[in-house]
Design a protein that fits this description.
This protein has 217 residues and is of the alpha/beta class. The protein has six helices and ten strands; from the N terminus they run H-H-E-H-E-H-E-E-H-E-E-E-E-H-E-E. It has a single domain, classed as Rossmann fold (3-Layer(aba) Sandwich), CATH 3.40.50.150.
């Protein structure tokens, strides 16, 4: 995952996705029941879920590798008058917050961008900043995706150039076994198949096959 690629995407395309995803809506309900307060929206992009979670009353930290994405999120938060949002630019592999800092973390439609080794670092960092009893909600693209096998393979199950609007971004397509291994140090893990509909850069409807994950520390 390269910073300049996302800067280019958000600079040229702006707010490319606006719909709040179902797993974030579900996460907000669970977080409320558990009385979570401090939530990290990791790889928040242009802030669709940062804004949603803040509107539900959480103290939300929206972070992303792209300064352009953060600037778009900042303008949206100001437009909606939301004061319970803090924004920061950083790489997912090095999260600049103390150990056990967050009650809950959402990172959706963001995993898969990068190599398998990069994801191992990301999950270690997520576990570090998540408090004991806290929950992560995330998802992973699978090898059943229509994009799998297209573009140029740079390592096993990792391709580049196969996704429109993200041509310079490597994508790793996960197996269930890989996901289980990533979360082996978490106390609880739930994995369920998930499908997302989206509109691509040419206006065509597409579907992403994913594995939805709820992991508790």
């Amino acid at each position: 995952m390269v910073k300049k690629d996302w800067e280019r995407i958000y600079k040229t395309k702006g707010e490319i996705q606006k719909e709040v995803l179902f797993n974030v809506k579900k996460a907000a309900i669970v977080f409320k029941k558990r009385k979570y307060s401090k939530i990290l929206d990791l790889a928040c992009g242009t802030g669709r879920h940062t804004i949603y979670l803040a509107s539900k009353g959480f103290s939300v930290y929206g972070t992303d590798i792209s300064r352009n994405g953060i600037e778009i999120t900042k303008r949206k938060a100001k437009r909606y008058g939301l004061k319970n949002i803090k924004l920061k630019v950083h790489d997912m592999k090095k999260i600049p917050f103390p150990d056990n800092f967050f009650d809950g973390i959402v990172c959706v439609w963001s995993m898969g961008h990068g190599t398998l080794k990069a994801h191992e670092k990301i999950i270690r960092e997520i576990r570090r900043v998540l408090r004991t009893g806290g929950m992560l909600v995330t998802d992973f693209m699978t090898t059943k995706n229509k994009y799998y096998g297209k573009g140029r393979e740079i390592e096993k199950n990792t391709f580049i150039g196969e996704v429109e609007n993200e041509e310079d971004v490597p994508h790793h397509y996960f197996t269930k076994a890989e996901v289980k291994k990533l979360f082996s140090k978490f106390s609880k893990l739930r994995i369920n198949p998930a499908k997302y509909s989206f509109i691509d850069g040419s206006g065509k409807k597409g579907v992403i096959n994913a594995l939805g994950v709820e992991a508790e520390k």
